[in-house]
Structures
1.
Amino acid sequence: MQLLNTTIFISEEIGSVSAEWTHAQSPIAQIILGHGAGAGMHHPFMQALAQALKDNNITSLRYQFPYMEAGKNMPDRPKKATKTIMEVANAAHQAFPSLPLFMAGKSFGGRMSSLLAAEWSEDFIKGLIFYGFPLHPPGKPSKDRAAHLSNIKVPMLYLQGTRDKLATPELLDEVTKPLKLAEVKYFEGADHSFTYLKKYGVSKEASTDLLAEASAHWIKSRID
């Protein structure tokens, strides 16, 4: 019997968080998916992405950060967020040890995953996928949030919209070019939420399909 809804114990201080599996029929890998700062694991984008990954033979485990679990608006500090991701990764690997595991996240979830990867590594972590890396606050270009990226020892895939106001393509290219393990794929016309201008004719459903296809293609190149 496959797990669907579950809870994952993080620590005595933090407690447990909710999580939900979306199982592929014949998975080639699994992804743990952290949500963005303003919406939890049940946000339509997160649910659609999980389904699209499933259609591309990727099993996913979406999870709540503690602040979202508690119904708070202020995102967790990095120490609490990274501890949560670590325990979710351990739980996913324990549940399906034969599946290559990738850490991933939308915006905040991705950045917190990168902070964890910069200081913690396990052989079962095969890479990181960022669905809109928040390099800087909107309208305030900066590279301050990128200082730790050079410490990451696993491959990284940055999936970014060209209209993303939290990571201008020029600045993201400048940050990732020196990183030998980093690959960037841009989606022309998409913003930070991967919503496209009408002239591009890309629906919300098609948007997550494109993200999942890019993820699966890259994952296959990492595990073949």
Note: The longest strand covers residues 15-22.
2.
Amino acid sequence: MDIAFVNRSRFLVACEDSIRQDRAELEAGRKVRIELGKGGYRGRVVVTIHPGDSASFGSDWMAADETQFPARIKAAATALLHCGCVGQFEVAHADGALHIRCVPDETGKTKKNDRGHTVYLVSCVGQKLGESSLAKDLYVSDWFKKARSYVEATGYPWFILSAEYGLVAPDQRIAPYEKTLNAMTAGERRQWASKVITQLDEAMPGLTHAVFLAGQRYREFLASHLESRKVAVAVPMEGLRIGEQLSWLSRRRGKRRLS
């Protein structure tokens, strides 16, 4: 049965943090334990995170009613998506703790998720320094600083979506600018997206997963193009207002980098 990913869950932060921190253990075929506190039902489900599908995950759940699917296991599946994990995983819950492990393929090997195939894409912001700087230092809004802290802690490659320059590497030196996608026509935004796609193809060949920390104007043509190529697209803050995004990022910032 296919189960829809969750947009919000009080268990997401703990699941995402544990998966990021213990990614090496997970990829080595060992169980990752996540303490969620008392409550919840006992259960064991094999979930399948499909490349290119950010709407739902596969499962061996046998009950007819999807609404009865365990909330903690659903949060774990969503966290796997957000962390760029694809493939099959056994997720079990008992006594307030989740256990997650990769399901071996037919050869008996667990599937590794190459960090070079996952990218985080962060939108530019209006608040900038007044002089040429490394891109990661040019943008000075509170939102961008928290987004930067979050993506750097994942250990994955990340780029900035710049209205002026397209796809920008964090250590690329660029000059400040005033251009914004909000002032562009739909045709101009299509041209911008086409440029970014070309740059992304060069920077991340073999891309399988993209996580956007960016608004609709930045995603509209990029996400659909990536999905048409079976690249899994995640937008973990979709639907959150700016204050809620700041809170979401604050709860996750500064976590330990992947080993």
Note: The longest strand covers residues 87-94.
3.
Amino acid sequence: MNWYLEVLRKYAVFDGRARRKEYWMFSLISILISMALGFASGFVGAAMGLSSNAITLLALVYSVAVLVPSLAVWTRRMHDTGRSGWWLLLILVPIIGAIALLVFSLQDSEPGTNAYGKNPKTSMA
């Protein structure tokens, strides 16, 4: 949970580097929260016979609220692998772009200092 909160503290920080663990823990917790909100929306709508608009609105608000931190941590993750944040535009290329960004996100950090800052693995230890 600390990794998730750390990304939220750096809400719109696009400079610097982010470790794999920081990026993937934020992504995991974000997905789990989205799934919980989706489940709650379906549960409220189906089981209780009530309108699920309030929960759906909550899910939308959550998605919009984490959009900027998601882009920021993803950009810092690209920086950690030695790439510019502009590589995120690959997502606009169907299938191939998403696969390339997944591979980039899974790669280990560049050792030492690169153009985007110190290696977060060595600076945190």
Note: The chain is about 65% helix and 0% strand.
